[in-house]
């Protein structure tokens, strides 16, 4: 009797969850359809807005066309690769330097005393404000873009690794020391693992901010990449191309975030955030 | 006593670290002349330029003060609009399920697009004046406002709600007297993140299309090879950003009470 009651309850719970999901999906479809309808209706031929903004159907057709017909020098996937490779180089360098520096700052008070003030000096400057000076220093080629993306990712990576290493449970470290662990062992088995969740937060924030920064860098100076797609749409008054660029940027950014979250869930399975 | 001594020691190391950095910069550029003044000027020149720019309009047509004023004005107008719309929207989305279901899909579409990507579209639609830039800032700051208000409401403890229900409070009363106060620390975090993002976005918008402002100033200085003005502008950007964050921190301490942070 009791068991039966429990079973019914479980089933209804599952049913409730399913209904909830169905409702979510229906509402999502409705709201996106309303949005598309307003867009389509607001930009119909002859209106003032219609002269400025293309209709959604045009944009989607253009979006799929651009996989085959190039925008400027390359097709859309090649532009994505250009932007992506720039982010990859700058981001990787920033990840290595930022995480090492952050952990060292959290681990050793000496390193903290030396680098913290210098770090605090560059932190309030948004990475985008570095674009003009980096063009002066590194020219208009790839070097300046790597440098800006590096800066865009560096600050949040360092900050989070630092916070992670700083927030080590002192009871754990004390216990390990009492049981005779060497300084290196405490570092390897206690400080490092407890900093990992924070490092992942940093990696995620840094990825999305460097994805924004590469756009700014490409808009200001480049001849390929998604930022260029958007900005050249502006200079040729091709709004369809601008919107295609924006949509692509959103999709790629979204995929990056999902992949990052998947990696985190795999690597930090023991941590609450990873679940 | 021993601890105090140690703290002083590390403080002195920090101070000397900055001095060593500035001295090395000055020594390499002013004495050894390893770099040309058109790539990296020495720190003394930068400071002199900074002071000179405070009340001289050359070469970009506005004093540093005027540039700062214009940037801050645009950044704050977009930011405040995002706060006024984003925070209530996030709160409502989190508390009322149908609002969440309707708005979330659109918000999820908007969220992964960096604010900077909107700049050209806004310029085409609204020109290069205040409104287009304020819209870019609005879209940039909206995302952290909504996400943090949303996450803040989700922190509400069920026990508190049960107590309120037991004493017969309405849904609206629970929302305003329990859920919103619970979410305040998160809202403040959202405000801080959004402010930083807005300040970065205004610089980007001014770099791309503007006739005044700090971003415009450093972009112009690049065109005429005046890295001292670029660096002075960057220092101004950093200082203003730090001041705004600091002021928000004071507000946060006043508003959020009883939370150990």
Low-confidence stretches of chain A: none
Give the tally of structural domains of chain B: 2
Helicity level of chain B, as a percent range?
Answer: over 70%
Largest sheet of chain A: none
Mean pLDDT of chain A: 86
Count of folded domains of chain A: 2
- Which CATH-level-2 architecture of the largest domain in chain A? Orthogonal Bundle
How would you characterize the overall build of this protein?
The complex is a heterodimer of chains A (275) and B (261). Chain A has 275 residues and is an all-alpha fold. Chain A folds into 2 domains: 2-60; 65-267, MetI-like fold. Chain A has 11 helices and no strands. Chain A has helices spanning 2-42, 48-52, 56-65, 76-107, 109-122, 131-138, 142-166, 170-178, 183-220, 226-235, 239-267. Chain B has 2 domains: 1-34; 42-255, MetI-like fold (Orthogonal Bundle). Chain B has helices at 2-31, 43-54, 64-95, 97-110, 119-126, 130-153, 158-166, 171-208, 214-223, 227-255. In chain B, helix 2 packs across helix 10, helix 5 packs across helix 6 (130-153) and helix 8 runs antiparallel to helix 10 (227-255). With 261 residues, chain B is mostly helical. Chain B contains 10 helices and no strands. Chain B is 79% helix and 0% strand. The longest helix of chain B is centred in the C-terminal third of the chain and has 38 residues, at 171-208. The interface between A and B is large, with 58 and 60 residues.
Quickly list its features.
heterodimer, A: about 280 residues, 2 domains, about 80% helix, B: about 260 residues, mainly alpha, MetI-like fold, 10 helices, about 0% strand
Question: What does this entry show, briefly?
Answer:
In chain A, 80% of the residues lie in helices and 0% in strands. Chain A has helices spanning 2-42, 48-52, 56-65, 76-107, 109-122, 131-138, 142-166, 170-178, 183-220, 226-235, 239-267.
């Amino acid at each position: 009797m009791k068991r039966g009651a429990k079973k019914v309850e479980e089933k209804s719970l599952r049913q409730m969850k399913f209904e909830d999901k169905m409702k979510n999906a229906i509402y999502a479809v409705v709201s996106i359809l309303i949005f598309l309808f307003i867009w389509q209706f607001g930009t119909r031929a002859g209106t003032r807005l219609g002269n400025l903004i293309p209709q959604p159907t045009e944009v989607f057709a253009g979006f799929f066309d651009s996989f085959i017909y190039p925008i400027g020098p390359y097709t859309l996937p090649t532009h994505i690769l250009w932007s992506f490779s720039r982010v990859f180089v700058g981001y990787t360098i920033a990840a290595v330097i930022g995480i090492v520096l952050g952990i060292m700052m959290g681990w050793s008070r000496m390193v903290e005393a030396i680098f913290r003030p210098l770090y605090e000096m560059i932190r309030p400057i948004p990475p985008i404000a570095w674009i003009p000076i980096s063009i002066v220093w590194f020219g208009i080629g790839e070097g300046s873009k790597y440098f800006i993306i590096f800066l865009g990712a560096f600050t949040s990576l360092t900050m989070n690794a630092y916070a992670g290493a700083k927030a080590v449970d002192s009871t754990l470290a004390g216990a390990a020391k009492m049981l005779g662990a060497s300084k290196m062992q405490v570092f390897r088995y206690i400080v490092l693992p407890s900093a990992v969740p924070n490092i992942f937060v940093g990696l995620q924030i840094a990825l999305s901010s460097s994805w924004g920064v590469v756009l700014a860098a490409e808009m200001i100076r480049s001849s390929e990449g998604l930022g260029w797609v958007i900005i050249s749409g502006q200079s040729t008054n091709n709004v369809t191309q601008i919107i295609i660029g924006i949509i692509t940027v959103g999709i790629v950014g979204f995929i990056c975030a999902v992949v990052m979250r998947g990696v985190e869930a795999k690597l930090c399975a023991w941590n609450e955030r990873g679940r | 006593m021993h601890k105090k001594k140690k703290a002083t020691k590390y403080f002195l190391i920090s101070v000397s670290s900055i001095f060593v950095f500035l001295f090395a910069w000055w020594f390499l550029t002013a004495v050894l002349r390893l770099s040309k003044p058109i790539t990296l000027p020495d720190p003394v020149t930068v400071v002199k330029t900074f002071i000179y720019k405070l009340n001289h309009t050359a070469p970009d047509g506005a004093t540093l003060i005027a540039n700062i004023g214009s940037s801050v004005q645009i950044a704050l107008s977009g930011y405040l609009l995002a706060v006024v719309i984003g925070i209530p929207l996030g709160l409502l989305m989190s508390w009322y399920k149908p609002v969440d279901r309707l708005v979330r899909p659109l918000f999820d579409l908007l969220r992964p697009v960096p604010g900077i990507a909107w700049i050209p579209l806004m310029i085409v639609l609204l020109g290069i004046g205040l409104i287009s830039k304020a819209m870019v800032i609005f879209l940039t700051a909206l995302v952290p406002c909504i996400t943090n208000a949303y996450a803040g409401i989700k922190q509400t403890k069920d026990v508190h709600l049960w107590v309120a229900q037991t004493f017969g409070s309405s849904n609206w009363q629970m929302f305003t007297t329990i859920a919103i106060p619970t979410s305040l620390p998160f809202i403040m975090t959202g405000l801080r993140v959004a402010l930083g993002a807005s300040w970065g976005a205004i610089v980007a918008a001014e770099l791309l299309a503007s006739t005044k402002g700090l971003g415009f100033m450093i972009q112009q200085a690049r065109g005429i090879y005046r890295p001292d003005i670029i660096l002075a502008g960057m220092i101004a950007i950093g200082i203003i950003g730090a001041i705004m964050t600091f002021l928000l921190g004071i507000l946060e301490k006043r508003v959020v009470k009883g939370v150990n942070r």
